[in-house]
Structure formats: structure tokens, C-alpha cells
Structure prediction request, 183 residues.
Amino acid sequence: MSDSNITKRALAQSLKQLMETQPIEKISVGSICSQCGLSRKSFYYHFKDKYELINWIYYTEFVEKVMEKQFDSSWSLFEEMCNYFYENRDFYNKTFRVEGQNSFSEYFFSLIFSIMKAHLADLFDDEPSVDPYAEFFTDALVCAIKKWLSRKDSMLPDDFCRFVRKAIQRASREANENSAFML
Prediction:
């Protein structure tokens, strides 16, 4: 492992430890560096702020690993993602609470939006742009994941995945079978 990755991992571990006892808004770059014995200069050499560090954590712990795998369906990828979030739910529940520019919520939305856009391209090939549809489904999925993780009695990942899948399939079937389908 390169020195750069060792430093980044030390900063990541430090942030995770601090988040066990403090809200992210109260954690400073200085406290992250103090926790692991590195300088602020080292931090800023690798990351522009603590939110970029959070995004890096997700990317290296999840995205890089799933990019190496072959999934038989997008549901399998969704299940893998939910298992990861559930295993790290305290950390991600806290990170999802932060909104705005550079937040994990914004970063996660952009990743899911890209995936959703690619998956919906064929379904909406008669539309001038698939973006509004991808945004709609991404909003729904991200919101569902945030709510699921925020509940103290959140269901297990397999149950949550089954719930999301069943909700989408039943609503789609009803809308398809009944042209008068209204909410």
C-alpha cells in the first residue's frame, strides 16, 4: 500500500472514531488530524474538506470493490449496497444527515443518478431526455435508503431490498394493468 493510501486510511479511521461520539458538524479537520497524529497540511494535501474524506471512504470501501464484481442484475448490486450501508449504518446515518454542497448526500445522489440514467435509457428512449426520470427514481431511492438507515428498528437489508423491489413491481404492474391508476 502506498504512503498516500496509508495516510488517507489513517484520516478515514480517525474521522470514523470521532463520529462515534460527535456529530460531523462538530468535527474539525484539526480534530481529525490530532486523532491520528497527522498534520493539517497532510490532510489538505489529500482532501479539500471532511466531506471529501467521507466520499473517499464510500468510494474505496464500496464502489471500488463492487466495480471488481459481476452482478447478475441491478437488484444484486442494490442488495450489496444495502448490506454495506447496514453494516456501517451508524456512520452513514450521520453522514446522510448533512445536506448541501460537498455533502455525502449530494455525492451519493450523483452516483445513483448515473447508474439510474444508464438503466433507464432504453425504457425512455422515446423521450428527449431520460434525466427527469432518472432524477425522479434517484430521489425516491435515496430518500428510502436515508429513512431506512435512520430508523432505530430498521429492517434487515434483505427485507428492505425485498420491500423496495415489491413496492416498485406492484406499483408498475398496477399502473400498467389499470390505465386509470391514480394515487
Summary: The chain has two domains: 1-47, 49-177.
